[in-house]
Amino acid sequence: MTAKAKDIDQLWYKDGLRFTCTQCGRCCGGAPGFVWVNAKEISAMARAMDMDDETFCHKFVRQVGNRRSLTEYPDGDCIFLDPQTRHCMVYSARPIQCRTWPFWDSNLRTEEDWEDTCQSCPGAGKGKLHNIEKIETARKEKRV
Ligand code: SF4
Predict the structure, then answer these.
(1) Burial group, residue 101, by CB count within 10 angstroms (0-12, 13-18, 19+)
(2) Phi and psi dihedrals of 95, rounded to 5?
(3) Which of 8, 12, 106, 133 has its CA 20 to 30 A from that of 83?
(4) Which residues pair with 63 in a beta bridge?
(5) Using CA atoms, how far apart are residues 8 and 143, in angstroms rounded to an integer?
(6) How many Cα atoms are found within 13 Å in the side-chain-facing hemisphere of 49?
(7) Angle between helix 39-48 and helix 53-60 axes, rounded to 10 deg
(8) Residue 81's CB: how many other CB atoms inside 10 A?
(9) Whose C-alpha lies nearest to ligand 1, atom 6?
(10) For residue range 37-95, what is the model confidence (pLDDT) as tens digits?
(11) pTM, whole model, 2 decimals?
(12) Nearest residue CA, atom 8 of ligand 1?
């Protein structure tokens, strides 16, 4: 067994995890938080909204230290969570952080962390079985 295969074999979720999004919008709202975005992600969303990057940043991006995050409504909902439909308004161009949910470092650290995630996300722990390779690719794409 290679060192890499051995490392994977020791992960508590080595047999994969289930997740199918129900599109409830809960992960995009509620408590205030951050959706970290880089220049490439900003450009993709700006294009999807038919805007230039500068106008997009002015309207939808805030500076947090040396990083940038999408703005929120006062109740903590993401600015792109449609208040009526509860669907994402930039879904096809959504940032990596959104695309890799729920396979984040913070959700996978322990089985208890994953159970907490399943409590807050009705799609986690159910539905499609994602294999370890796919989970690890998502987890490492952006450390959240
Ligand atoms: S909370 Fe879970 S099920 Fe609901 S939209 Fe987010 S990922 Fe999908």
Answers:
(1) buried
(2) -65, 165
(3) 106
(4) 68
(5) 17
(6) 22
(7) 100
(8) 20
(9) 27
(10) 999 999 999 999 999 999 999 999 999 999 999 999 999 999 999 999 999 999 999 99
(11) 0.89
(12) 21
Pocket test for ligand 1, best of 17, 27, 114 (most atoms within 8 A of CB): 27
76: left (phi over 0), alpha (psi -120 to 50) or beta: left
Which pairs with CB-CB distance under 8 Å and at least 24 residues apart come from 91-97? 92/48, 93/41, 93/44, 93/45, 93/47, 93/48, 94/45, 95/35, 95/36, 95/37, 95/41, 95/45, 95/70, 96/41, 96/141, 96/142, 97/35, 97/36, 97/37, 97/142, 97/144
CA of 124 to the centre of ligand 1 (A): 8
Count the residues in the chain. 144
Report the distance separating Cα 60 and Cα 53, nearest Å.
Answer: 10
- Tokens at 26, concatenated: 């809960």
22: CA distance to ligand 1 center in Å? 6
Determine whether the shortest distance from the Cβ of 85 to ligand 1 is under 6 A.
no
